[in-house]
Specification:
A hairpin with a 2-residue loop joins β8 and β9. With 306 residues, the chain is of the alpha+beta class. The protein folds into two domains: 100 residues, Phosphorylase Kinase, domain 1 (2-Layer Sandwich), CATH 3.30.200.20; 191 residues, Aminoglycoside phosphotransferase (APH), C-terminal lobe (Aminoglycoside 3'-phosphotransferase, Chain: A, domain 2, Alpha-Beta Complex), CATH 3.90.1200.10. The longest helix is centred in the last third of the chain and has 23 residues. The strands form three sheets. The chain has a five-stranded antiparallel β-sheet with strand order 1-2-3-5-4, with helices on both faces. Strands 6-8-9 form a three-stranded antiparallel β-sheet, covered by helices on one side. The chain has a two-stranded antiparallel ribbon with strand order 7-10. α3 packs parallel to α7 and α5 crosses α8. It contains nine helices and ten strands. It is 40% helix and 14% strand. The radius of gyration is 20 Å and the shape is globular.
């Protein structure tokens, strides 16, 4: 029997992360910025809450304890990675401490101008795909020594797909006849078997439209390195099914020179995420998951007939 003293402590209570809280934190810890206006950004993200601080900065606060390791990771590694990358990435300016009833460290970054990369905002999707592939290739070439190995801090992106094998198979069983179980199981099995045998490389871990910024219809910046780390780069291929299609998907793969096993693992990563979010209570996210699953199934059918 476990005594009450052996039970884990309750998670820290997180107050509403809103403009008044950010103003109090700034005033207490960075009073030289206290007169700058604070307002939420248009797309604030899931793991963190983001706010404008004046016109040139943003404030980013983890929404739960699991996202806290991302703060120090970005502060340590982004300044070292940035000179090696061909597009703009976030610049950490200051690290905040817990305070004002908020229990976690937090960050101030330089603001990056641009719009999130919705497909309708992209002038040439194939050109966009090649530019993104060039960025990822440069990231994957960056010196990995000392970089954080894939693990809980990266939501296990960059680690083995077997991490999510049980969750994926449970999702397949729960979804039943709403999905083609045989094909989905085959895609997943192939992905799990296509193990990564290379040395660890840097990966971003969350290459999605909300973390890609466009200006004048062209890719200009890549943000939110909270899931980054060193390991298997296949997780960075998910965008091939969530945003790209046809010629743009083919251009992306060719520009990265992706082999069949890595492509299969990338397909596995995006399949896992689609399956576990098909029943998401947010209808927008559920619809995105269905769109992604259809893209995976279509691309896989084409690949086995070639």
């Amino acid at each position: 029997m476990t005594s009450q003293d052996d039970s884990p402590p309750p998670p820290p209570r997180v107050p509403p992360i809103d403009v008044p809280l950010v103003r109090r934190l700034i005033a207490a810890q960075f009073p030289h910025w206290a007169d700058l206006p604070v307002r939420p950004v248009a797309v604030g993200g899931w793991d963190n809450r983001t706010f404008h601080l004046g016109d040139a900065m943003t404030v980013r606060l983890p929404s739960a304890a699991g996202y806290v390791p991302q703060v120090d990771k970005e502060h340590r590694w982004l300044p070292l990675l940035a000179p090696r990358l061909p597009l703009t990435v976030p610049t950490p300016l200051a690290r905040g401490e817990p305070g004002e009833s908020y229990p976690f460290p937090w960050s101030v970054y330089r603001w990056i101008d641009g719009e999130t990369a919705r497909v309708e905002r992209i002038a040439d999707l194939t050109g966009f795909a090649r530019t993104l592939a060039g960025f990822l290739a440069a990231l994957h070439r960056a010196e990995p020594a000392g970089g954080p190995p894939a693990g809980a801090h990266s939501a296990f992106r960059g680690a083995s797909l077997t991490t999510y094998d049980g969750e994926t198979r449970r999702a397949v069983e729960a979804l039943g006849d709403r999905i083609p179980v045989g094909t989905v199981t085959e895609i997943w099995a192939r992905a799990v078997l296509a193990t990564w045998a290379g040395p660890p490389v840097w990966f971003h871990g969350d290459v999605a439209w909300g973390n890609l910024l466009v200006r004048d219809g062209r890719l200009a910046a890549v943000i939110d390195f909270g899931c980054c780390g060193t390991g298997d780069p296949a997780c960075d291929l998910a965008v091939a099914w969530t945003m790209l299609s046809g010629a743009s998907r083919a251009a992306f793969r060719a520009a990265l020179a992706v082999d069949d096993d890595t492509w299969a693992r990338g397909r596995g990563w995006v399949l896992w995420k689609a399956l576990i979010t098909l029943d998401h209570p947010d209808p927008v996210r559920a619809a995105e998951a269905r769109h992604t699953l259809d893209a995976v199934l279509g691309e896989y059918a084409e690949s086995v007939t070639r």
